[in-house]
Model the fold of this input.
Amino acid sequence: LTFISTLRGAEVSTELTDPEYWVAQVRACVRYRQGLAALRQRGMNHFLEIGPSTTLVGMGRADDAEGSGVWLASQKAGREAWAQLLESLGRLYEAGVAIDWAGFDRPYARRRVVLPTYPFQRQRYWLETNPHRQRRISGGSTAQSAGHPLLGERLRLAGLTGLEAYYQGHLQAHAPHYLQDHAALGSPIVPATAYVEMALSAAGMAAEGPWQITNMAIAEPLLLGDPGGAIVQTTLGYGERGTRRPFQIFSHAAGGDGAPRLHASGLLTQPETAPVSEPLAVAALWQQLGPAESIGALYERTAASGLEYGTTFRGLQRLARRDNRALGLVELAEGGMASSGYIAHPALLDSCLQVGGALLNGAGQGFYLPVGIERLTLTRPLPHRLLALADLRPAQAEGGRNATIDLQLYAEDGTPIGVLEGLQLLRADPQRLRESATRGGVPAPSDAPFRVGLRRYGVLDDLALLPLERRAPGVGEVEVEVQASGLNFKDVLFALGMLQEIAPKDPQQQPFGYEFAGKVTAVGEAVVGLRVGDEVFGLALGSMASHITLDAWRVQRRPLALSME
Done:
C-alpha cells in the first residue's frame, strides 16, 4: 500500500514506524497541496475523503484548476451517513472504478433482478399545451391567447379603458416543463427571471419598446409543489403618457378560493437613451480573472446548499473569477427549447445570475434568492449564448445575509446587450419557504398525530384532519412518519359515497391513501435492513396520516435518485 505523507509531501514507508515522524506530523507544516500533486503524478484522479466533513475535498477541488478530478466525501454535515457513502460509491462506479459488488452485497439478503437487454432511449414525452389556442374562462367569455407560455391569455374585461392590460396563465411544475428544473429544498419554485420575462413581454405586447424594469421588488416566492399548480395574473397599469407602466404579478391556487398573493411588482419605463457600455475585451478579461472552481463543483455546492438546478437551468459553460468579479459564458440548454418568443428566457437569464451567485453561496451556508432589481435594461432579446460579467458591490461580505450584485451582459464578441443594476439577494429562510409551499392548502395540524378522515359520505367539504392514536410497532413491523401520500381515484369514490356497499358504515372508519413515502420513526423486533431515520416508500391503506405502522416487508428504502414526492 503506497502512503503519501502530508508531512513530506511525498511517498514515505519506514518512517511511519518512527515516533518522531508522528510528533512532526502534529507540530510541523501540513503539505497537503504537495501530497495531492504527488498523487496526481502517479496517475491518481479520484479522491475520497475519509472523515466527518468535506473540508479536504473542498480544498482539493478549489486547487483543481482543470476540473478533471473526482472529489467525493464519505460523510457530509446534515446528511445521513449511509446515503452519503452510497452516493460516493455510485460516483466512483460511474467514473470507471472497479467495485467489488459481491463483497458489498455479502452481508445482505439480495434478490437478483433481470433488467431489459435493450438500452433505454431516455427521451421525454411531455404533452405541451398549445399557447395559441382560444380558451374559455370563468363567466363564459373568451380570452385571446397572448401567445406566451408564462403570461397565458390577455383578458378582455368590461369596464376598463383599454389602456391597462391583464393577463392570466396557469403554471405548473411541468408547464412550461423547464420550471421543474428550478427547485428549492425539494419544491419547484418559479425563478425571479420568470417575473422579468413576464413583465417585459407584457409591456412589449401593449406598446412598442424598448422597455426597462426599475424598482422591481419580489414580495414572496411562488412554489409549485401543488400538482394543480397556480393561476398567475399579471397586471399592467397605465402611467404618465404611457411611458411609465407599473406592473404586478399575483397568484392563487388552481381551483382554490384563497385571496391572490402578490409575488412581484415594479415599474416599466421607456429609456430616453440606450445604456452606454464599452465593448468587452473578452480574451484579455478571461486571462486577467483566471480559472474559478469547476462548473460541476459549483452546481454540486449549490445543490448541497438547498438550491437545485436541473438540466435546463445548468447553462454555465465556462467561469472565471478573481476577488469580487466573475465572468461566465452562458448557453441555453437544449431542455429550454427554442428561445424564440422570449425576450429573456428565464433559464438563460437565471444562468447569467448564477455567475454572480458564484461570488456567494459558501459551502454549508445555505443559498440566496433574489428579492429586488434596481434597474434592468436590454438592447435586444437575449441570444441563446452570451457572456455575463458580475461584480459584487463593496462591503458585501461573502457569507452575509444580504448581497447586491451588478451584472453586464455581452454577446460572445463583447458587444453590449444589457445591464442589470442592483440585483438584491437575501439568504433564504428554509422555514419561510416551507410555509409558502403549504400556504393556501389544508391547514397544517398541530404536533399531535392526525389522519385524513371523513365525517359523512357524499360531501368533500367534510374531509377533515382527525386525531390519530399512534401504535408502537410489533414483531416485524415499523412505524413511518409520512411525508407524502398518493391520492387514488378509489379514495374519491369512497368520499363521494359511491362505494357505500363495501365501505364502513361509520365514515370516520374509512381509510384514505395507499402509496406513501416517509421516514422510519420506530422499528419492531426481528426487523432486518431498516433502522430509525431511514427514508422509505411503501404501500398501506390509511397512509394519508402523520404516522402509520405496518409490516416491514411493505416498505423499501428510498432510492437516492427519487424525491419524497
Notes: The first strand starts at residue 3 and ends at 5. The mean pLDDT is 82. DSSP finds eleven helices and 28 strands in the chain. The longest helix spans residues 192-206.
